[in-house]
Amino acid sequence: MGTQRSDRFDEVEWDEISQSRWFEPSKNTLGVVFCTLPLALLGIYDWQVLGERTATFAFLGTEWNLEGIDYLFGFTLVLFAFYVVAPLYQNPRMTRYYWRQFKRNRPAVVSLGWLGVVFVGGLFGPLVVSAPEQSVLTGHQPPVFLSIDAANVATCVGDVVGGRCQGTLQHPLGTTQGGKDVFASIVYGMTISMQIAFITTTIVAAIGVSVGTVSAYAGGWVDETLMRFVDVVLSFPTLLMFLLILYIYGAGLGMFILVFSLFAWGGTARYVRSKSLSVSEAEYVKAGRLTGATTAQVVRRHVVPNTASSIITQLTLLVPGFLLAEAQLAFLGLGDSAVPSWGQLISAGRSDLSFAPWIVLAPGVVLFLTILAFNFLGDALLDALNPEAEAENE
Amino acid sequence: MSEEPLMSVRDLEKHYPITEGLFRRQVGVTRAVDGISFEVERGETLGLVGESGCGKSTAASSIVRLEEPTGGEVIFNGNGRGGATRNADGTHPNDVTRFDDRELEAFRRGVQMVFQDPSSSFDPRMTIGDAIAEPLRVQGMDDRDRRRAIVEDLLDRVGLSASDADRYPHEFSGGQKQRIALARALVLNPDLVIADEPVSALDVSIKAEILGLLDELQSAFDLSLLLISHDMSVIREVCDRVAVMYLGEIVEIGPVSRVFSDPKHPYTEALLSSIPTPDPRASPGGIELEGTVPSPSDPPSGCRFHTRCHRVIQPAELDIDQSAWRGLLNLRATAESGAVDVAGIRERLAADSETDVTDAAVKARIRADFDIPSEVASETAERTLSRGLDQIVNGEFEAAADTFSEAFTTPCEETAPERIEHGSGHESACLLHEPDRTSDDGEGAGGRRVSADE
User: B1-110+188-301 architecture in CATH?
Assistant: First the structure.
């Protein structure tokens, strides 16, 4: 074995090559497994061993607690790291090519920067910034460099100049009626927004891609059944369903994400199906089948990667919808008021709009910018991730 | 080594069902490939030529089982499977159409393909190094470094550099991609490469390069090659033998030198006359095939080419000008489909002249449209024709169709021709060459029927 290894294709002794074909996971898949295992163990420990009220990391002496949605978020982050970031690093040539295409679109580059800020802020902000706390006495503090009539403030943290309370760096974006720091609330809201973005995207992509490819490849009555089911999903009144659940069982952020993403994959599935059908006609898929690969292998290596890159755009454009939906529900008071989302903050400030507009404006602007950024990003990704279209144009 | 061919295709069929309605009731069948037989010898290049839509590519994908053939057998004696004899029940152990999954996977090492369109034959998200190495990986070569070394060696052989392995398909030109496609086809060291229109998407200069490379690789690695093309000049350049396909059937097969110098089938004649000649003063002289290729879901009876053949046989009692006969048959076909546009002809004639349009003028116009002279050189035929034209002018299309179909019949639509051998493996399927038929130029005299089960 290995003694007469020849590097010429016509001197390969195929009979000597092992035909054992058990599943060989890629490095990235192994990475996902190794990172998910401790997460899952921790989750089981938290769920089975620790009491309801005990913080997850109590054994480290901290009050840091994880909930179901945090585990889900962690898992999607692992997937993101190994299936999106790692391939970009492993294929530097393709990455450079994508980047060259991508950076032609200036607004998209700025958007990416902004989303990077939101992402990092959402991930690490809560570790740096302490959670906003209720403090009725210091309610309605103005943002730094601004001032408010001292009559509206119980206790002014800054100086009172000429009957007006001045903002301080202690509360750079001011405080709410309850005295919660707006800046800290926005940072904590970033975490919520990122959780919504990542988890919904993962659920929608997983179901959409599976249903779409199975439908395209199975054909016949399977295709027919799945696509009619997609019609049902698309015409389902998700909002009413959510309200129903909300009134009967009460609903937190987890339920919101679950319900909305479980009824949002219809379009993705349809798109993946049509894209898979066109990809399966391509000659490289025929060439793939000619190597002796099974249909499942061909689908995994050629069909899914080539459809997935084009649904990234679609998913990117789906996320703003979820963020807006969450904010709208929170504003209407239909969300879980314990969740420090931007929508909750906006909702909290609406009664004070006349004299303390920052409570609404600060998170409103952040929400607006984030949604705008996702839309710009989606457009730019569509252009950048489509090398075939580019080659045809040249 | 025995004299058995590398691959022998016997009566291969690929029929697609045509279904209709909610329950997918089968209402017909498209005979894309309808019983073709040929052999590929070791080290030879066989060309498969025909118009687009005649089933060449379907034949190729049925041979390699990218699509499941619906009939016939493909016997592959490569991969060290040679010397096998038929089983007791008449099946062949080397019949590709009966291979199980394991055998099929090994068969992939024996036959590979090069595809037509260089822009879609590579996964845009895979480096070409990975694309070339993919067959190795799928076939079980786990050693990454070895795969890499083989890929680099191969890239070098097809005229690219080893460092190109890290580049992506969009970074290459069409010609380069076809070289890479060749490398991918070669990487498993197959015995047979099927090239489906490998150069039809390329510029002329690149075309010659790729064909040269193909030739070079073929002799270096003792490959057999099945080259599919619609371009007779490509076939002439690289092939040893050529099979001409029309509407799912092979109408002529033989050594290139013989087929090109002495085509037996009228369809081959027509194809050959379409090759442009470099002499600017030479008259084009092409044989123009009339009409379009009939639909393979409803192929013409008898000889499938009779609807367009310029040498379609006249019945025994008739002896008129060949183009007039073709015109009569075309008129008959048009009348049968009810597509004679008398009103249209009247309108056009009325636009040209001030006076009323007479029936005689319309009839003359129809004759002119179908290249029929004003007086057919046979009294009976002329009589039938005038009667039929009268009926057409009177709007009795069905009666006209009956009149024509009774009188103007050709043996070609009644009898399916068998393959006739003309010596040195040159065979054709045309009634003109049946031994019991004395054709105009007496070419058929030397022919010998090829028995089907030979």
Answer: 3-Layer(aba) Sandwich (3.40)
